[in-house]
Amino acid sequence: MFAAYAARIDRDQPLNGLELGERPAPESRPGWTTVNVKAASLNHHDLWTLRGVGITEDALPMILGCDAAGTDADGNDVVLHSVIGQTGHGVGPGEPRSILTERYQGTFAEQVTVPSWNVLPKPKELTYEEAACLPTAWLTAYRMLFTNAGVRPGDSVLVQGAGGGVATAAIVLGAAAGLRVFATSRDEAKRRRAVELGAEAAFGSGERLPRRVDAVIETVGAATWAHSVKSLRPGGTLVISGATSGFHPERTELNRIFFLELKVVGSTMGSKEELASLLSFCAAKGVRPVIDSTLPLDRAREGFAKMAEGDLFGKVVLTV
């Protein structure tokens, strides 16, 4: 079957390790389900895999891709939850949780197999392309906002780095849930787009906000960390799920964190139950993922290049 896969690791030039071509179809396994992929979306996790983060050379070649929507063997429309082994379904009792492609072949292919527990019904209101955007970036944003930040309608939230998948999801979900959403971006066009999607206002990176916020959604890391901490009200919560600009900020702002009793919460992906709630929320309220571009699988390299260069707003979707 045709697939986009990591053939080698290159930490400096990750796209050098990306190959497009034939790979073996997945073999059947007890307790697992094979899905015919209709659409799959890109995540920064895929770039990290090409850089060798979360994977070693001996696991290659590895078909990339965490997210997918498609049909099961009975023709049912389904969406995949890409955290494997979270509850022990389909794996050995001692196996820790992992994200698809850290141990198992991914979704950028004609077929993928996952534990049957990881398969959810796709709401009829969502297209395959829309549903394929939800299981990683949008689920991450959902958990950051509603589980780990614990915000309620009327609370204020700063979303750093408008344009990225998680940030875009947080803006749309937050606005739909009645939050006062502020966003930042270095790019004026992305700031305008953030406001169009429901942000109350958007600012340049590091620019002072009109008020301190109840929570910050942080995925940028080193470049925005100090601004995130300074933007919180006393007792506020900073939720971090990534660090695309690096892991080591120049200023940690530890004095503000302890003196203002701020909470810093790490967040990774989300549960199957949260994904089911997210799917229901999108179907019921008309919320739809923001798609930057849709490409056929054989043009996956173009999508990876857009993501690597940061030249996007929303998700890049690959269709099969």
Describe the structure.
The chain is an alpha/beta fold. 26% of the residues lie in helices and 26% in strands. It has nine helices and 18 strands. Strands 3, 5, 6, 9, 10, 17 and 18 form a seven-stranded mixed sheet that branches. The protein is globular, with a radius of gyration of 19 Å. The chain starts with a strand and ends with a strand.
Instruction: Give the overall silhouette.
Output: globular
Broad structural category: alpha/beta
Number of helices: 9
Report the count of strand segments: 18
Features:
18 strands; 7-stranded mixed β-sheet; alpha/beta; 320 residues; 26% helix
Structure summarized in a few sentences:
This protein is of the alpha/beta class and 320 residues long.
Give me the secondary-structure topology.
Elements: E1 2-6, E2 18-22, E3 32-41, H1 44-50, E4 62-63, E5 69-71, E6 77-80, E7 83-84, E8 98-99, E9 111-115, E10 119-121, H2 128-131, H3 134-148, E11 156-159, H4 165-176, E12 180-184, H5 188-196, E13 201-203, E14 213-218, H6 225-230, E15 232-240, H7 254-259, E16 263-266, H8 272-285, E17 291-296, H9 300-309, E18 315-319
